[in-house]
Structure formats: structure tokens, C-alpha cells
Amino acid sequence: MINRPNILVVCGKNKRRSRTAEFIFKNDNRFNIRSAGLSPKSDRKISEKDLIWANLVFVMEQNHKEKIKKIYLNIELPLIEILHISDDYEFMNPELIELLEDKMNDLLMQYYNF
């Protein structure tokens, strides 16, 4: 596959959930991945460029999707999927890794057949 899709993973502050997702999938040859947070206190704050770059966005909670839609009214947003993973885990927590792998791989299979 030459054209790998760009996957953006978003959570509140880009400290635990989305950072874990980026870390565990960063060497995956099926797609490009980056992570960002919605809070001004994020390690890496989401930007319009991130959303233009992304083919698919994974958010952790329903309110993350709503915030993105509210803030970025001026651009055509990529598809946004909610993973429904609450902020109960530390960075690289084994249970968090398992949830991310299961949910993201299921959706990637659905959209990209891999």
C-alpha cells in the first residue's frame, strides 16, 4: 500500500490516552499516526493543520467530538470515530493498550480493510 491513511488520535490533554495510542502504533506500516489534545494545557494541542492532515480521527469521548465540531466550523472535518475510553488510565497502562488496540484495529479494518 503506497498511500497510507493519516490517523489522528485525540484526548483531553494528550498526556495519557492519545499519547499511548500514538506510541503503540507509531511503527505500524499500515498508516501514519499523530496525537493531540483539546485542552490548552495539552502536551501537543490539536490544530487545524492536524485535522486537514487526517483521513480519520479517533477521539476518546463523545464530548471530544462535539468540541472539535464546535471549534473547527470553518473546515471540512474528516470522519471522527469515538472510542469510548474514559480517562481512567495512566500512560502505557496495559489495559489501556489492549482497549486501544482492540477498538482501533476493529475500526481500521472496517474503514481500510487492514
Tell me what the structure shows.
With 114 residues, this protein is of the alpha/beta class. The chain is built from 4 helices and 4 strands. It has a 4-stranded parallel β-sheet with strand order 2-1-3-4.
Instruction: Give the CATH superfamily.
Output: Response regulator
Task: List unreliable stretches of 5+ residues.
Answer: none
Strand arrangement across the biggest beta sheet: 2-1-3-4
Q: Remind me, CATH topology?
A: Rossmann fold
The average pLDDT value, as a whole number, equals 96
Number of domains: 1
The ordered H/E elements are EHEHEHEH
Name the CATH class.
Alpha Beta
Largest sheet composition: 4 strands, parallel
- Any guess at the CATH architecture? 3-Layer(aba) Sandwich
From the spread of the alpha carbons, the general shape counts as globular
Number of helices: 4
Number of strands: 4
- Strand composition percent: 15-25%
Structural class from helices and strands? Answer: alpha/beta
